[in-house]
Amino acid sequence: MNDNAYPSSLELLVAGQWRGLAGRDSLPVVNPATQQEIGRLPVATDADIDEALAAAQAAFESWSRTSAWQRAAVLHQAARLIDARRDRIAHLLTLENGKPLADAQGEIDRVLEALQYCAEEAKRAYGRILPPRAPLLVQSTVKRAIGPVAALVPWNFPVFLAARKVAAALAAGCTVVLKPAEETPAACVELVRAFVDAGVPPGALNLLYGVPARISQRLIASPVIRKISFTGSVPVGRLLATQAAQHLKPCTMELGGHAPVIVFDDVDVDKAARACAAFKFRNAGQVCLSPSRFYVQSGVQEAFTRRLTELAKALRVGDGLLPDTQMGPLQNARRLEAASRLVEQAHGEGARVETGGGRLGRQGFFFAPTVLSQVPASARILAEEPFCPVAPIVGFDTFDEAIAQANATEFGLAAYAFTQRLDRAAEFTERIEAGWIGVNSFTPSLSDAPIGGMKDSGLGYEGGPEGLDAYMHIRFISQANALA
Ligand SMILES: NC(=O)C1=CN([C@@H]2O[C@H](COP(=O)(O)OP(=O)(O)OC[C@H]3O[C@@H](n4cnc5c(N)ncnc54)[C@H](O)[C@@H]3O)[C@@H](O)[C@H]2O)C=CC1
Ligand SMILES: O=Cc1ccc(S(=O)(=O)O)cc1
Questions:
Q1: Is any atom of ligand 2 closer than 6 Å to the C-beta of 445?
Q2: Which of 61, 150, 226, 325 measures 20 to 30 Å from 461, CA to CA?
Q3: How far apart are CA 119 and CA 74, in angstroms?
Q4: 444 lines ligand 2 (CB under 6 A)
């Protein structure tokens, strides 16, 4: 068998046991570059879900009491195995997600970084010693694993986003029931296999696929699950957070974004446009941190629009497996429909299509890199998260006008500004409503930096010590070493 062949049937992992299609319904997995079915995915039954929960509960007893140093050793070994298997995992990722192979390899690099960071950071999950209120008293706080976790992951960075949740949870001493996206399962199966081969005990990590609402509802309602971590859209996040609230369970929600970019008239237009094009069209625009609304000051509006348009036109769009491809297809038909609708609506509302604007070819979910200019402030595309390779440009005159428009959505995940003036940069970072801010730069999320949205973009943080704290409970202990 070709080492890179897509597995025709995929598997769930329940209580340390791989479970295939036999006796289960199945779902197709489709290559977005060809629209061909490439594999079939078993749908977890209620019994699979319940057994995964029981296994996560049973494994928690020992995994949470395994030392942080031993847990770290397992995570480091998983990272080594993923590194050794990286070509195969990256190939599977491109086949099911569509991203260029080089980007899939880049995603694996970030998986390794997440595992290594969490392994080391968990060793520093220190508590505090308080000044005691009386002699012979020791009063302290300790951090302890919060319990079994439900981790729900989308299809845009399926391995990295799964690895970030699983690594932080396991490093903290939690056990996990992971449900990645049904659209992109195989690379996650390999991620989980690496953890198992590295020595994660049976039941400490379980993998389910199936009907998302059915699985999430059952997991959240189960008394076993003590924490929910979800990445995805605002409506689904709101639904899951509501369910979690009914059971008084904490959740981390990494939801949508609609990041503004403010381009001031003092910039080097070519450099700013190059940076914007690279980050805008990364992963075909399907990134929650993507710059997705461009507010450009009048003095450079024409030049910036022209340069961004040239760069968009020059992008080579194609099958991610081809070596020259710079941008792959959208991951699914829902995104293709949304992209077409948003451009049509914007055009109807008065925007001008500078380049792109529609589907490319008849096979595969390819959408042309698109630049829209003269977009009116009331356009739908400025309010709805586009999650596609479309860059709407809006002109502005004054700083206050730009900030007001940038803050005029319910999203608050990321925001960017390009300026050489320190006063503008400082005022931008102070007044913008976003959790991830870039000035003259774009940065994908980092293992050691917390990412957390303001407003509807989320709850809590992933990454950094804050991302590990999300899987731990802080307990206060007062120990009298002699009876009064
Ligand atoms: N923050 C991010 O990185 C992501 C954001 N999105 C947002 O979602 C929008 C639509 O994408 P879709 O895939 O159609 O979004 P969606 O919100 O329906 O799905 C996103 C993920 O959530 C899962 N999901 C959906 N309903 C669920 C439920 N009831 N319980 C548990 N999991 C559930 C899906 O399986 C998928 O993996 C995008 O336009 C984008 O705005 C989507 C993917 C990732
Ligand atoms: O939550 C989704 C998410 C967050 C960050 C990134 S990246 O670090 O910019 O790749 C991708 C998806």
A1: yes
A2: 61
A3: 8
A4: yes
